[in-house]
Amino acid sequence: MRHFFKDRGILEVDVPVLADTSASDVHLNSLRLCNGQYLLTSPEPYMKRLLGSGSGAIFTFSKAFRANESGKRHNPEFLMLEWYRPGFALEDMLAETLALLSGLAGHAERGSELPWPSLAEFALPKRFTYAQLMIDACGVDPFTVSDEALRATVRQQVSGYDDVESAEPATLLDLLFSSRAEALLANCPVAIVEGYPAEQASQSRTRFDAAGRLVAERFELYLYGLEIANAYHELTDTAEFRKRHEDDNARRRGSGLPELALDHSLVAAMEAMPPCSGIALGVDRLVMRLLGLSRIDQVLSFASNSVS
What we know:
three-stranded antiparallel sheet
């Protein structure tokens, strides 16, 4: 993988995993240390500070940390590959990501239950919109469903979830997507999901789609139903970034979660950042798929004791 980036003139950088604040996204739980600092959920803030300083195209392999994420596909500490390409549109980033993955075929385990996708499957991935997957999986259009109908759907289709009445709609949509819609991708070697609602934009730009709906300029890449990578056409509008941060903190207050301070260094970097796209790829999950394995602890030397 390093040779791939070197051949394309992309500089490898090393960034810290500690910071004074962390991502405000309600669905990301940061680990806070006794000194008040955070273990970062992604190397993104430091990468963007480098971009704002004129680094050009960069990549890093970095440990990332997310509290309360343990299971067959999750570990609280994991290895993330993240890279940024100034001047790249989202389609350019998709093409480069598919080129990287298709070049790993020689490292895939032969004869596994889930074979590594072929060159043809990487060349022509199946593309899905978030809305159509949700409609097909559970009969919910995320752009038009009422809160009442959404809660009723979760009660009917998701077992073991006790916070239906108190959870906000965005959380319920995430729950339906992960528990129902992702299952439709299980037999698809390479799938691209796009057209996420603007409320799920995080740090990506937004645009209006052909149907006039405001959607996030981002995609997620799946291999046989396992999310491998998440890409953004990166937001550089600092006023919008501040607004999203304030909205996230309002949702945190409503959910009883701690608020996160604004990262002023990141804001300053965004003002100087060139237009670019970026992507985060889970290396441990990638190795799972290369080896045809189903549990993340099978590819970690030291998995969390809570992985089950």
